[in-house]
Amino acid sequence: GNSVTQMEGPVTLSEEAFLTINCTYTATGYPSLFWYVQYPGEGLQLLLKATKADDKGSNKGFEATYRKETTSFHLEKGSVQVSDSAVYFCALYSTGNQFYFGTGTSLTVIP
Amino acid sequence: DAGVTQSPTHLIKTRGQQVTLRCSPISGHKSVSWYQQVLGQGPQFIFQYYEKEERGRGNFPDRFSARQFPNYSSELNVNALLLGDSALYLCASSSNRGLGKNTEAFFGQGTRLTVV
Q1: How is residue B26 annotated by DSSP?
Q2: What is the pLDDT of residues B56-100, one digit of tens each?
Q3: With contacts defined as CB-CB under 8 Å, which chain A residues touch B108?
Q4: Could you give the CA distance from residue B55 to residue B67 in angstroms, rounded to a whole number?
């Protein structure tokens, strides 16, 4: 079946620190992989995506590489800002035309 | 252009009642999907509608139903509400039935349902 496992939170970092949020997946077929971000009181916003193995998605300084050999899609950012504080969801999109989401990782960045 | 709009934004219902949530997709989008996000969890797929027909259903009881109208807006209905139905209900729209390299799903801000 399809499932996503992501790093438990919450994560607290100082401004300008390096961020990694781990995400691994199990999938049937050839999934696309996504990172969504959710700010307090809001819905989900697409942060980045990758549609095939070895693709790198990037946006707003965030990056993630689709690693088929390790079934991973870890999110990284070199220097976080206070405005990056949010909940981050790793997701895969595969058979059945639906998303499978991880449980989310809460990030707080302190000045 | 307006994004995905959902109404109402917040709702409080009593156990056993029925509720209807509404979603208007982005103009031109024919696919609407519904997700339930319980506090502290990731969203769970409930339904997908495309061209007014149900195209997918998640692991939810028959108390949950939905429909899509000719203008592609959608309603999610939940009957006989339980405390466990308290959640953020998200609607997502896309232009195609499936997502490809150049097709994106856009999420609304959700309806926060509290069952007391």
Answers
A1: P
A2: 999 999 999 999 999 999 999 999 999 999 999 999 999 877 776
A3: 43
A4: 11
